[in-house]
Amino acid sequence: MVIESLIRPRKAEQKPWKLLFIGFFYCSIALLLSLWVFERHADLVTVFLTVLAIVPLFYFTIRYEEKKDMLMSGEKNLLKEHGRAITFLMFLFIGITLAITFWYTILPAPYTNSLFGIQQQTISDINSQISAKATGNAIAHFGIMMRILSNNVKVLLFVLIFALVYGIGAIFILTWNASVIGVAMGNFIKAELGSAAQTFGLSSVSAYLQAASFSIMRYFTHGLLEIAAYFIAGLAGGIISIAIIRGDFRTKQFEKILVDTLDLIVIALAILVFAAFVEVYVTPQLF
Predict the structure, then answer these.
(1) pTM score, two decimals?
(2) DSSP string spanning 117-176?
(3) Buried b or exposed e, range 186-198, using 16+ CB within 10 angstroms
(4) Quick one: pLDDT at residue 25?
């Protein structure tokens, strides 16, 4: 496969920033094919085709990380090695998100409605739920934080279950989240450009760049933490899944694999708690 040969885990760990451009490319091709061949269902097909392109890399990454668990000793060293995989997967996710944001921002409304209809509805539902709970006091903020944390933990559990059952199934939920965040960022950019146009009579390049950078910082402040937690959980579930498929659960090394994956899950949960705090108490103050 051409897609499969573009990059492997070992090379990705050496130059993780390349995954940003690969993610942007994968998603852009998926958008084009979805709009061309499956226009009526382009919003879901885009996610599916993007996932299809990512599957080889994600599969070989999980195998590579499971092999490290079998060969390496020392939990600290293992977590450090897993961190390299999480880093390049995060760059891949950022590339997908930026591709969604870019195309959502520049394409005409009829195309964006076809390509991102379900994502738009999802964002509308989330905003209505949060708005209904927001009253401005500290107790309400804590309630919102717990609601966000509860939803994020559910997503993390879905990622873990998908990874355990389907091996690489977690990548679907992660790509779906990337598409939702990308559309949210695109909405914010369009709103800022509309405000600039009313104020200055035009939307200049500087206004566009300012809106884009502001949107990226607003959503990535807490969004990257959440996605990092999901990737960690997906990696943990995938490692267990691959270990079972390869028959490594029959070996003495399987206990070490279990300890490693439990550590990853605990780290993922801790990151989600911090991300929920940032989303409720820090992001609104900054943006």
Answers:
(1) 0.79
(2) HHHHHHHHHHHHHHHHH--SSHHHHHHHHHHHHHHHHHHHHHHHHHHHHHSSTHHHHHHH
(3) bbbbbebbeebee
(4) 92
